[in-house]
From TrEMBL:
Keyword list, A-Z: ATP-binding, Nucleotide-binding, Transport
Protein name: ABC transporter ATP-binding protein
Entry's family note: Belongs to the ABC transporter superfamily.
CDD domains: ABC_drug_resistance_like (cd03264)
GO molecular function annotation: ATP binding; ATP hydrolysis activity
Source species: Paenibacillus lentus
Top-level taxon of origin: Bacteria
Gene3D superfamilies xref list: P-loop containing nucleotide triphosphate hydrolases
């Protein structure tokens, strides 16, 4: 399966674009969408999932589109979607929740039982099957959200910010189960956390204010800032803010009476600056034109 996003725009009002002429292809594996709040990640995921219509442009699934209702139904059967704010019924148990979702997918009998069991095992929630949803931790609820999204074994899984607000161990666990699910399927996840992308995604798309800033593999993204990452130390009495007209700040670590800066720029910020090995975070900050003030 290949997804081709072709010149997709979403206009919410005369002045506001959620997305503006976004084009790129997504192949099998894990694809990370990254960008700050309001970048357009949710808008793009909803359009791919067929929940929202683009104002202009087309999404192709192996050359097919959702333009007709019949084709939309056909393609949506191959897509699983977990929105950011999935509403569960707190009084249902994990198994009852899955049972309900399975019925919505038209599953019944032995197939239904097998799919529920398989999905819960994949997200490591099979031991919690009889627990009420309200008794689950935030991370467990995310995993239940993924389980409901994969119950019909979709070829494309779309998950909106699955790792936000969960502890580091749970984040890694969620990342790993998405990687396992991907295999030859397409998994698209959105995140604010560059580490999640760097550690698990073969493909990355950086969105900013509705436009695509980068699309490709993480290694090439990092290479794009090679030779542009600098570290230098200044006394805290020196105001480094004036340097930020020419350089992009990645981090500032205060250590006693000095501050260690990590900056991005074409040339060394100071004579004694040291060139540093670029990271995914450096590349991301460069691509979105620096951190918000
Ligand atoms: N229903 C809507 N009506 C009007 N504007 C909207 C609507 N939904 C989104 N927007 C605007 O479109 C832009 C993109 O929003 P979107 O939710 O896709 O971004 P996002 O990258 O998912 O953000 P976040 O990380 O905060 O979830 C934002 O400026 C947002 O305010």
């Amino acid at each position: 399966m290949q997804i081709q996003i072709d010149q997709v725009s979403k206009r919410y009002s005369k002045k506001s674009y959620g997305l503006h002429k976004v084009s790129f292809n997504i192949g099998p594996g894990l694809c990370g969408l990254i960008g700050r709040n309001g970048a357009g990640k949710t808008t793009l995921m909803r359009i791919i999932a067929g929940i929202m219509e683009a104002t202009a442009g087309t999404v192709y699934f192996d050359g097919q589109t959702m333009k007709s209702a019949a084709m939309q139904r056909h393609l949506q059967k191959r897509i699983g979607y977990l929105p950011q704010d999935f509403g569960f019924y707190p009084r249902l148990t994990v198994k009852e929740t899955m049972d309900y979702i399975a019925m919505l997918h038209g599953l019944s009998g032995k197939t239904k039982q097998t799919r529920i069991q398989d999905s819960l095992e994949k997200v490591h929630l099979d031991k919690q099957a009889d627990k009420k949803v309200r008794e689950l931790s935030g991370g467990m609820k995310r995993r239940l959200g993924i389980a409901q999204a994969i119950i019909h074994e979709p070829e494309i899984l779309i998950v909106d910010e699955p790792t936000t607000g969960v502890d580091p161990e749970e984040r890694i666990s969620i990342r790993n189960l998405l990687t396992e699910y991907a295999g030859q399927r397409i998994v698209i996840l959105s995140t604010h956390i560059i580490e999640d992308i760097a550690q698990s995604c073969q493909q990355v798309a950086v969105l900013d204010q509705g436009t695509l800033k980068y699309q490709g593999d993480i290694g090439s993204m990092i290479k794009a800032v090679s030779g542009m990452v600098w570290e230098c130390t200044l006394p805290i009495t020196e105001d480094y803010k004036s340097m930020l007209t020419e350089f992009t700040l990645v981090s500032n670590h205060y250590m006693g009476d000095s501050v260690r800066l990590r900056l991005l720029g074409e040339k060394a910020p100071k004579a004694d600056s040291i060139q540093a090995a670029p990271t995914a975070e450096d590349a991301y900050i460069w691509m979105i034109g620096g951190l918000a003030p």
